[in-house]
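queue> pop job 88
queue> type: inverse folding (structure -> sequence)
queue> payload:
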């Protein structure tokens, strides 16, 4: 992303005379939408785990594969092997640009146990609702963090009640969650074994 930014500036796309905050936001919004576009043919060709890993690392997120301890963040260094060999076990979307448009990638994941959304500016209620409707994730997800995501409200958090095997949920710095007691109570009622860790004001 930084290299692209420098290249764009060098090419004069954002010269001091023409650059404005709106133009910059429009450009990055367009670029992020491109990075989140789902290529269904690619999913068929390389499988859901590989295509999801490519999407996530392209957007600045990290993935951890089952049997490997190290988080992968370099698109060009993703492990290779026979189709279906590497299964995604964890996703760390900290400071990434993943958005709802790309969430169809998650449909085929069967071994995903952990998701971290931390300062993920495009994560909103619809993203959490989408995750909660994916059957594979309803059974596989065990841990989730939602931290400093300003577009997440009580509605999105409550939607997580469909993740029936969720064991640990960490919530912090979510100004959109305004009725935390009622929201936590509803989650706890639906998922009595869920451990909810809160750092909300």
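queue> result:
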């Amino acid at each position: 992303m930084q290299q692209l930014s420098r290249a764009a500036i060098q090419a004069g796309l954002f010269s001091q005379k023409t650059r404005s905050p709106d133009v910059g936001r429009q450009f990055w919004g367009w670029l992020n939408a491109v990075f989140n576009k789902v290529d269904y043919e690619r999913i068929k060709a390389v499988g859901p785990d590989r295509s999801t890993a490519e999407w996530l690392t392209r957007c600045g997120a990290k993935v951890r594969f089952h049997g490997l301890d190290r988080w992968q963040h370099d698109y060009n260094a993703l492990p290779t092997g026979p189709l279906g060999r590497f299964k995604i076990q964890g996703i760390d979307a900290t400071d990434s640009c993943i958005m709802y448009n790309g969430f169809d990638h998650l449909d085929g994941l069967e071994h995903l146990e952990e998701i971290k959304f931390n300062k993920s500016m495009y994560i909103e209620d619809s993203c959490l609702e989408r995750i909660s409707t994916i059957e594979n994730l309803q059974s596989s997800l065990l841990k989730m963090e939602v931290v400093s995501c300003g577009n997440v409200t009580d509605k999105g958090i409550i939607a997580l009640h469909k993740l029936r095997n969720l064991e640990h949920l960490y919530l912090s710095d979510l100004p959109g969650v305004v009725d935390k007691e009622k929201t936590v109570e509803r989650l706890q009622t639906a998922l009595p074994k869920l451990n909810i860790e809160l750092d909300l004001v």
